[in-house]
Design brief:
With about 350 residues, the chain is α/β, with parallel strands linked by helices. The chain contains 12 helices and 9 strands. The protein has a domain of about 200 residues: Vaccinia Virus protein VP39 (Rossmann fold, 3-Layer(aba) Sandwich), CATH 3.40.50. The strands form 2 sheets. It has a 7-stranded mixed beta sheet with strand order 3-2-1-4-5-9-8, with helices on both faces. Strands 6-7 form a two-stranded antiparallel sheet.
Length: about 350
């Protein structure tokens, strides 16, 4: 028997895939971004998907709509927006209204009384200041303690869980007071590389074509193809030993180590980020959304909806590359969800 789960701030579904691969069944996913919602619905397989701001939801009415009785929810989980705490964001923390969204997880837990709560965030979240005397970790721990939960926190690196990407993520797992819980143990013996997960893909399709593998579309502008042609595999355009003329390097500085960068076939990728799509190891083009999704650990059956943004273009909501980059790698989500399942003895 699968145990009921509820997903808040679901994004494009990375956490959902990991949770549902364990002994949980996500009954409903809540997300506000329209393109993410389209992605979730396209891959829902019968799951309810609501496009709504979690702050507008009454937790008891949610339970009633899903026909969940008190104590029936095994896992409440979600990845509240990380931009207020992200290294590449404005780092406004709790002064940004989105910086307070993590406390919606406490509000829902207080009403629904799940057997466990799982939250994903960026590592900087833990030490971000909530007040002059307390960090976000301190305050979150206090608020869960007030409703009867012990809080466990840890930063995990996706590369240690079969993901070909160096990606650190902060996890919070809350269990009823006195319940024992341990995070999954990192697997350090082998590392999956970029080449291992993308080398079997066919040639990328141009926007006017129909890709044989979903989302495997190349939108690289000609000017960017020219710029990246100067960059060796695993390097970046502004690196001191890259011999590129000034009109190619333009305003990039030596600190711009993630811009116009090639990933290396024989290494894990750098962390995928919003707005900065790495380049293919050997071809003069961006990674396609599908290649990025494989680097995150998404199965090919998970299809992303919405536009694909060129570097010089704009998209109001989350385009395919940013949906992928914002997501929790499903294998990492699986590892944490499995540890929750083991702690709760949910067989």
């Amino acid at each position: 028997m699968k145990h009921h789960a509820l997903s808040l701030f679901a994004g494009a579904g990375g956490l959902d895939i990991g949770v549902d691969s364990c002994n949980f069944k996500t009954r409903c996913s809540v997300e506000l971004d329209p393109h993410c919602v389209s992605t979730l619905r396209r891959n829902s397989r019968g799951k309810t998907v609501w496009r709504v701001d979690a702050r507008a939801l009454d937790a008891l009415r949610v339970a009633n709509c899903l026909d969940l009785q008190p104590g029936q929810l095994a896992l409440l989980y979600g990845g509240p927006p990380c931009q207020p705490f992200s290294q590449i964001g404005k780092q406004r923390g709790v002064s940004d209204p989105n910086g307070q969204l993590v406390f919606e997880m406490v509000r829902f837990a207080a009403t629904l009384r799940p057997s466990a709560v799982m939250i994903e965030q960026v590592p900087r979240f833990f030490d971000a200041q909530f007040s002059p005397s307390a960090t976000m970790r301190d305050v979150l721990t206090e608020r869960f303690d007030a409703i009867g939960y012990d809080t466990n926190t840890k930063v995990l690196n996706a590369v240690h869980f079969g993901v070909p990407q160096r990606r650190q993520r902060a996890f919070v797992v809350c269990v009823p007071r006195g319940q024992r819980y341990e995070f999954p143990i990192p697997q350090l013996m082998s590392t999956v590389t970029v080449g291992e997960v993308i080398s079997d893909l066919p040639a990328a399709t141009l926007p006017a074509g129909s890709p044989s593998v979903p989302n495997h579309i190349d939108v690289t502008p000609d000017r960017d193809r020219q710029r990246i042609s100067y960059v060796p595999e695993g390097a970046w355009l502004s690196r001191v030993d890259v011999q590129a003329p000034p009109d190619i390097v333009q305003r990039l500085t030596r600190k711009d180590t993630t811009k116009y960068r090639r990933v290396h076939r024989n290494q894990p990728s750098i962390t995928l980020r919003c707005g900065e799509v790495p380049y293919h190891p050997t071809e003069n083009r961006y990674l396609t959304p599908r290649e990025a999704a494989r680097i995150q650990g998404f199965p090919d059956r998970h299809v992303f909806a919405g536009p694909i943004r060129r570097r010089t273009g704009t998209v109001r909501d989350l385009d395919q590359h940013r949906q992928v980059a914002n997501a929790v790698p499903p294998p990492l989500a699986t590892a944490v969800a499995s540890s929750v399942q083991d702690a709760l003895c949910l067989s």
